[in-house]
User: Fold this.
Amino acid sequence: MTSKKPIGRREFIIGASVLAAGGLAALAVQQPAIAFPTETCGVGGSGRRKILVAYGSQYGTTGDVADAIGRVFCGAGHRVDVAQVKADPDPAGYDAVVIGAPVHADAWLSEATTYVGDHHAALSRVPVAYFLTCMTLGLTQQPEDRARIAEVFTAVHAQVPDVQPVDAGLFAGALDFGRMSLANQLMYRAFAEDSTEGDHRDWSAIRSWAAALQPRLTSAGGETRTRS
Assistant:
């Protein structure tokens, strides 16, 4: 039997350092557990609608907005499913669809635009509404900044022109570093245009928009609007 060679102090320190660095790296990229809303509520019935609220969300804050919108519809007696776009819920069979996502780098989260493109045929046959969340809307009231954020939907329309939303809501977002990995926290602090932590979501405005949207989801007609 061959005896193991004793590990010297230098080798031990080097090995321990490698293991520690690996452990820290793993912790740095580890994403905290986030509950993304996935709900089904309401019973529907005569004169009611079956509505899908599909959303994209990296850290759950836009998911919370989608859930609040869905609950308004449920409270009015509609049958509502709230689901992430990455789960690819089939919009066929719904009477109306609401799609939302945050703005990153002056664009709607790509998975939301991809979802609209993938299901453009079904979405073009029912009333659709878009919404977005953006930290900029919570940090400035300058008209030029709001106009720049509104251009997000112009880009979506350019990519998927046959889906014509009956309304589009613009809402302030939230930035919670506690929902991010350490690595993403550092990246946001270093490179994000709006890296001020805080929750700027206006729940009253969100619920009011959803309440006003209900009659517009009964018909695909009407002029497309963008408002908050």
